[in-house]
């Protein structure tokens, strides 16, 4: 089965219906394993047990950026190929990405208070992540402000493409500016600087939360496809009633 | 014995669990509401022309 076959809403519903229970089970197992690994991981020599917040904060940050990257790719699908499933994927992903961006800021401020002595500073990393959250919220507001779903989809696609410029800014802000936030320590030239005893629980947690995002996105996409079918049925019923 | 800054660690994990739980609940409830409305529409005899067994499981 090719990608274009899968990009058919009916086929997507059938395939995702079979896949979802397995994906949800795998997500629960991976997150449970990651939680155990995080609890058993050693304390950091400087940060003590506070480093445990890393096991949720870092995956949330990665997923907030990955979510927005996927939104930008879906936006291309909406604007270039005008594919209905791209619009479904875009609409379903925005609230999920917004939650991960919020959780990144929430857990980061709770990590920052004991380590830096403050919940918040206006440094480049924190500020660009806040901008990412505001972009997600802007997308949600834009969709709900425009009544015509096609027009709303195109407007949201344009905003997500324009806003994508912020994703590399978030990633490289710690290299381009002098920030209180530490520089990259996992994905960097020369390899990770984190000890394997701390790195493996982090990888397990990142895989678990990525699976969670995938599962939730698939569920939300299924609902969105059904919502569009419901809308067209309601329109048909209203038209039939008008001509009866 | 609880480690230093335990309140921050617990608040981060518990708060995240709460927010993710709310997101999962919202997605589940939204899906259920849409399915219920679709079922009600079909019960009234309004169906898609191409509808056979394609709503998935």
From TrEMBL, chain A:
Segments passing through the bilayer: 20-40, 60-81, 93-112, 124-143, 155-178, 198-221
Top-rank taxon, per record: Bacteria
Alphabetical list of NCBIfam families matching this protein: ccmC
Compartment list: Cell inner membrane; Membrane
Keywords tagged on the record: Cell inner membrane, Cell membrane, Cytochrome c-type biogenesis, Membrane, Transmembrane, Transmembrane helix, Transport
Family from the record: Belongs to the CcmC/CycZ/HelC family.
Biological role stated in the UniProt entry: Required for the export of heme to the periplasm for the biogenesis of c-type cytochromes.
Keyword DNA damage set for record: no
Statement: the UniProt record of this protein carries the keyword Hydrolase: no
UniProt-recorded name of the protein: Heme exporter protein C
Main location group: membrane
InterPro entries: Cyt_c_assembly, Cyt_c_biogenesis_CcmC, Cyt_c_biogenesis_CcsA/CcmC
Domain Cytochrome c assembly protein: from-to ranges: 5-181
Biological source species: Ancylobacter crimeensis
Topology term for the membrane: Multi-pass membrane protein
From TrEMBL, chain B:
Compartments where found: Cell inner membrane
UniProt xrefs under Pfam families: CcmD
UniProt keyword Protein biosynthesis, yes or no: no
Topology in the lipid bilayer: Single-pass membrane protein
InterPro entries with a match to the protein in the record: Haem_export_protD_CcmD
Coiled coil: none
Primary site of residence: membrane
Transmembrane segments annotated in the record for this chain: 6-29
Keywords: Cell inner membrane, Cell membrane, Cytochrome c-type biogenesis, Membrane, Transmembrane, Transmembrane helix, Transport
Family per similarity comment: Belongs to the CcmD/CycX/HelD family.
Free-text function comment from the UniProt entry: Required for the export of heme to the periplasm for the biogenesis of c-type cytochromes.
Record-linked NCBIfam families: cytochro_ccmD
Name of the protein: Heme exporter protein D
Gene source species: Ancylobacter crimeensis
Gene name linked to the record: ccmD
């Amino acid at each position: 089965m090719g990608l274009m076959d899968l990009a058919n809403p009916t086929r997507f519903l059938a395939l995702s219906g079979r896949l979802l229970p397995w994906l949800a089970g795998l997500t629960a197992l991976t997150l449970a394993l990651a939680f155990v690994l995080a609890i058993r991981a050693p304390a950091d020599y400087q940060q003590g047990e506070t480093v445990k917040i890393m096991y949720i904060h870092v995956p949330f940050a990665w997923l907030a950026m990955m979510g927005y990257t996927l939104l930008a790719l879906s936006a291309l699908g909406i604007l270039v190929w005008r594919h209905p499933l791209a619009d479904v994927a875009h609409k379903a992903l925005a609230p999920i990405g917004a939650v991960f961006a919020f959780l990144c800021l929430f857990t980061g401020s709770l990590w920052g208070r004991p380590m830096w002595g403050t919940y918040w500073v206006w440094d480049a990393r924190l500020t660009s992540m806040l901008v990412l959250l505001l972009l997600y919220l802007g997308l949600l507001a834009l969709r709900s402000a425009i009544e015509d779903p096609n027009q709303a989809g195109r407007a949201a696609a344009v905003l997500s493409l324009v806003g994508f410029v912020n994703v590399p800014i978030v990633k490289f802000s710690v290299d381009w500016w002098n920030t209180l936030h530490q520089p990259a320590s996992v994905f960097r030239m020369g390899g990770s600087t984190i000890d394997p005893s701390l790195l493996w629980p982090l990888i397990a947690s990142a895989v678990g939360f990525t699976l969670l995002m995938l599962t939730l996105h698939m569920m939300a996409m299924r609902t969105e496809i059904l919502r569009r079918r419901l809308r067209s049925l309601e329109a048909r019923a209203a038209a039939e009633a008008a001509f009866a | 014995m609880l480690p230093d800054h335990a309140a921050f660690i617990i608040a981060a994990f518990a708060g995240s669990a709460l927010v993710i739980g709310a997101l999962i609940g919202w997605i589940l409830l939204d899906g259920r509401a849409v399915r219920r409305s679709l079922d009600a529409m079909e019960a009234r005899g309004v169906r898609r022309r191409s509808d056979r067994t394609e709503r998935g499981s």
